[in-house]
């Protein structure tokens, strides 16, 4: 099913074709999405899709009176994934997820991503179960307007910010369309942004031989909301001739890290 345009999933063109406790299938049109910090085609949309299909299969396993929150997300990507996508940019990336192991207070989902007949990535999403909040927002049944401008930064409501140093920074503006049912920034949107800033940080000055994201691990610590003070900050921990390690944080208006990520990349 196509999702309403005024929801996080609809904003990025995600289509869900199968949805249940035994598995989920969805796709995202990743071929025209570029990192606003580097101008390069990015695999960041896969992080949005990971959060959706992995989180959804965990969510469908909940008992009455339970709700789910993602606690961590892990993505492993083949090094030429962006090249595979660029060969047929109009073909969406498809993802399938299935439950792994028994459900307890937490659950784990396994995911696989393909583009045409090529396997691009594998991923996991771990969720934990809480008592269902009483103030969940209702998502609308249909679109309220046209698609926003097509750039990834516009869809994410992020703006490139000055860092005053080697860090790469994106400001996360408030946009209710990007919020989940708890009223906070959708976890997939934040995962995308963390990949964007971390990959940009390790690729500073490497336009001729970019390092390609190979793995991304995201840990969700506390709620993250969009505001003029909210931002994603990426820094390089180590950059060598053929590999690099970067880290990123989503920092809320209170100045505290709400989400953290570690990224590895190779030439």
TrEMBL record:
Gene3D superfamilies: Hotdog Thioesterase (3.10.129.10). Residues 183-250 form the Thioesterase domain. It comes from the Bacteria. InterPro entries: HotDog_dom_sf (IPR029069), Thioestr_dom (IPR006683). Pfam families: 4HBT. This is Phenylacetic acid degradation protein. It comes from Mycolicibacterium moriokaense.
